[in-house]
Amino acid sequence: MTTRFPQAVPEIPVSSVEKAADYRPKGNRMTEQIVVGRRALIAGAATAAAAAVARAHAQAPPLAETRLADVLLSPTNTMTVERRDDIVLIGLNRPSIQNRVDPPTRAKLAEAMFQYEHDPSLRAAVLFGHGPNFSRGIDVEASQAALIAGTRPAPRTDTLDPLGNTPPHRTKPLVVAVHGDTWNLGHELYLAGDVRVASADTRFGQDENTHGRFPGGGATIRFVREAGWGNAMRYMLTGDHWTAEESFRMGVTQQIAPTPAAALEAAIAIARKMAACAPLSIKATLASAHQMIDPVEADALSKLGAQYAALYRTEDFLEGRRAEAEGRPPKYLGR
Fold first, then answer.
1. First to last CA, the chain
2. pLDDT digits over 133-143, tens only?
3. What kind and span of H or E run contains 255?
4. 210 with 228: CB under 8 angstroms?
5. Are 98 and 151 in contact (CB under 8 A)?
6. Which is nearest to 266 in space by CA: 276, 254, 277?
7. Alpha-carbon radius of gyration of the chain
8. Is the Cβ–Cβ distance between 97 and 133 less than 8 Å?
């Protein structure tokens, strides 16, 4: 799919304020200087806009069109995909272990996000969870060996980070619907959505610090941004869990539905409204908003992987694992 760019920046009309300023007594040098300066500023802005368009046109790689295929619900599929006209539903499906995300499932989610991004027939996506919970977060048992060794999957060009922590990023909207336990990485997937809907039974948590880890999927950045410093630290630094009502109060959740099914339907309704809008306008809106937040957050997000992996090699992490297995409070020593 080829991105279209305007061939030239249209002429910017003189504002009504400027026109009024033109009706000035002759010989008022200060007024003349103000008008000249104002016009110079407008001309400079137009030149900058034209240059930005030219740069984008030169740098934008051609998009490889894809088609995101349906993936049926079955015990062997850890993620489902259901196309509904111009929206798509993506579901986590590991209910036997509370939809904890292991490396293969995370890779599948990244592939689905890439295919959604490059499928021209899809305009909005909904992420949800099958079973009693959205997700209790990372599957530590399945992930810790690679994290301790410091090994990471080889870079691929056919994936998009579902957390949005590494480029390239989505340019299409994502609505996330949650219910039940929505902890840690599960909450961070929620934070990565553009609009968030929670069932009234949702139990949120970002309790990694109680286990000798830390919120390494983006909550230290996005939770602080969305909820404010004090609200985010109140829960991240204590490990206390919170309700859907509290999430709504903090501004993280945009809508609460009475049941998990109603939360999913509400998310689908929002996605349909997004899909009915002009797709280029939607992309421009997201891009403009990200121009404000991405430069501020990029450096912190780029350090998360190394910070998270480092904690997996500490004695406190091992103590947290032992304490959890033995059903006792951990005794951390800070090493």
1. 52
2. 999 999 988 88
3. strand 255-257
4. no
5. no
6. 254
7. 24
8. no
pTM of the entire predicted model: 0.80
* SS3 state of residue 124: strand
Question: Distance between CA atoms of 239 and 311, rounded to whole angstroms?
Answer: 17
Q: Which of 10, 11, 9, 3 is nearest to 57 (CA)?
A: 3
Q: Are strands 124-129 and 174-178 parallel, antiparallel or unpaired?
A: parallel
Determine which helix (DSSP H) or strand (DSSP E) holds 231, and give its type and residue range. helix 229-236
| CA atoms in the 13 A half-sphere facing the CB of 53 | 13
Check residue 132 and report its DSSP letter.
S
List pLDDT tens digits, range 205-237: 999 999 999 999 999 999 999 999 999 999 999
> Do strands 242-243 and 203-205 pair parallel, antiparallel, or not at all (unpaired)?
antiparallel
Show the beta-strand stretches assigned E in the chain.
79-84, 87-92, 124-129, 174-178, 181-183, 195-199, 203-205, 242-243, 255-257
Q: 62: buried, middle or exposed (CB in 10 Å: 19+, 13-18, 0-12)?
A: exposed
In this predicted model, what pLDDT tens digit does every residue of 290-315 receive, in sequence order? 999 999 999 999 999 899 889 989 99
CB 199 within 8 Å of CB 258: yes
CA 292 to chain centre: 14
Could you give the dihedral angle defined by the CA atoms of residues 82, 195, 135 and 185, in that order, rounded to the nearest 10 degrees?
120
Q: Is the distance from CB of 244 to CB of 198 less than 8 angstroms?
A: yes
Q: How far apart are CA 11 and CA 60, in angstroms?
A: 25
Residue with tokens 């009915």: 276
Cβ-based burial of 163 (10 A; exposed 0-12, middle 13-18, buried ≥19): buried
Q: What angle do CA 205, 162, 152 make, to 5 degrees?
A: 95
Burial class of residue 1, CB neighbours in 10 A (0-12, 13-18, 19+): exposed
